[in-house]
């Protein structure tokens, strides 16, 4: 995909590295020349030195041809301006980070397709690290309504030797948790699980769940003998 990233702050830089690593064609617009030079050196991504709230800079970045424009500027007002300009250039998909939720309606009016709430991401991550250190958040689905988690089966867990069916039929196992994958670390093998699949020590289990239900699911999978 051809992706324009507006703003290369801390979040933007990490995103750019991930996108380039996944072989996307990335063009970055940032007002700081030193940042542009660093991004180019570290990732090889094309950089445009200029303001992403300036339509000429967006045009130079080829935003009118972009599959997606990601607005990752520090100020909400700048992100909204960038989104409006991108839409005026015919961009179909605009994703923007939002710092202050009071701007949510403004983002919608600007035509932003997906709004990423920075505060929600940080708070959910902190809570997960505090409450469920055995669980890692992998991806967010449906604007945070469901999340993909990874849970590793520890040594001497009660779930070792149980089948997926055994686990899901436990009356305490949340009904809104779905097993989507199993990674055998020792064999470097990834499987799509079925009901008769047996859990082994060290397996990394991928589960789609709500934030409310993953705690109970994790407790069942990692409870020790």
Report on the architecture of this protein:
With 225 residues, this protein is an alpha/beta fold. The protein folds into two domains: 120 residues, 3-Layer(aba) Sandwich (Rossmann fold), CATH 3.40.50.720; 89 residues, Alpha-Beta Plaits. 35% of the residues lie in helices and 26% in strands. The chain is built from eight helices and eleven strands. Strands 3-2-1-4-5-6 form a six-stranded parallel beta sheet, with helices on both faces. A five-stranded antiparallel beta sheet has the order 7-8-11-9-10, covered by helices on one side. Strand 9 and strand 10 form a beta hairpin. The longest helix is centred in the middle third of the chain and has 14 residues. The N and C termini lie far apart (48 Å). 32% of the residues are buried.
**The number of domains:** 2
Overall structural class, as computed from helix and strand content, comes to: alpha/beta
Question: What's the tally of helices?
Answer: 8
Proportion of β residues? 25-35%
CATH topology of the largest domain: Rossmann fold
**Helix content estimate:** 25-40%
Averaged pLDDT, please?
Answer: 90
Shape call: elongated
Which homologous superfamily in CATH is the superfamily of the largest domain? NAD(P)-binding Rossmann-like Domain
Distance between the termini: 48 Å
Looking at the overall shape, the CATH architecture of the largest domain is 3-Layer(aba) Sandwich
Question: Biggest β-sheet: count, sense, barrel?
Answer: 6 strands, parallel
Number of strands: 11
SSE ordering: EHEHEHEHEHEHEEHEEEH
């Amino acid at each position: 995909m051809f992706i324009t990233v507006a703003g290369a702050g801390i979040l933007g830089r990490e995103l750019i590295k991930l996108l380039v690593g996944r072989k996307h064609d990335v063009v970055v617009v940032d007002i700081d020349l030193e940042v542009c030079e660093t991004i180019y050196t570290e990732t090889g991504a094309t950089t445009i030195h200029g303001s992403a709230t300036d339509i000429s800079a967006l045009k130079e970045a080829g935003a009118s041809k972009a599959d997606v424009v990601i607005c990752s500027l520090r100020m909400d007002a700048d992100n909204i301006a960038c989104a409006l300009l991108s839409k005026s250039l015919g961009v179909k998909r605009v994703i923007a980070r939002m710092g202050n939720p009071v701007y949510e309606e403004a983002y919608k009016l600007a035509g932003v397709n997906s709004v990423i709430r920075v505060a929600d991401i940080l708070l959910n991550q902190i809570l997960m690290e505090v409450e469920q250190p055995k669980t890692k958040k992998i991806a967010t689905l449906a604007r945070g309504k469901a999340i993909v988690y990874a849970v590793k089966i520890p040594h001497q867990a009660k779930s070792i030797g149980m089948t997926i069916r055994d686990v899901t039929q436990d009356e305490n196992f949340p009904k809104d948790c779905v097993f989507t994958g199993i990674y055998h670390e020792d064999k470097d093998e990834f499987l799509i699980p079925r009901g008769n699949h047996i859990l082994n020590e060290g397996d990394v289990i991928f589960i789609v769940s709500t934030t409310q239900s993953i705690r109970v699911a994790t407790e069942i999978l990692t409870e020790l003998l």
